[in-house]
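Hey, weird one. I pasted the MarR family transcriptional regulator sequence into the form twice and got a warning about non-standard characters only the second time. First submission, copied straight from the form history:
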Amino acid sequence: MDVTPQQAETLQLIFERGAVSTSSLAEQLGIDPSTASRNLSGLERSGLISRKKGADDARQTDVRLTPRGKRIAESVAAGSSTSFAAVLEQLPRADRQRVTDALELLARAIGPADEVSR
C-alpha cells in the first residue's frame, strides 16, 4: 500500500510509542492538530489506525495501529533501512565507516527522539 511520507512518519511514530493522543502526535510531528487530524482520518479510512476516546481524559483521542497498520509500519521501516543500505553501497568502501560514524555522532548530539520534538 502506498502511503505519503507524512503518513509513513505518523505510522512509525505510533508504532514506536504505542497508543498516542492526537495532540501529542501533532506536537511530536511538528504539525497543527487539525493537520494531524486530517492525516489520521485518511489512515483510519485505510484501516491502518483506530481512534478511541482516552481512558484518562474523554476529551482526548488515543490513536493505535491496527494489525494492518502495524504491518505497513514495519514494511516502511524495512524499506527505509533497505534504502539507506543502498545509498551506503554507492559510497567507496573506505568512506562508509566514516559516514556511519558521523551519523551516529549526530544522532547522539540530537538526543533521544522524544527530546527532538521539544
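That's the output from the first submission. The warning seems to come from a hidden character in my clipboard, not from the data itself. The first strand starts at residue 20 and ends at 21.
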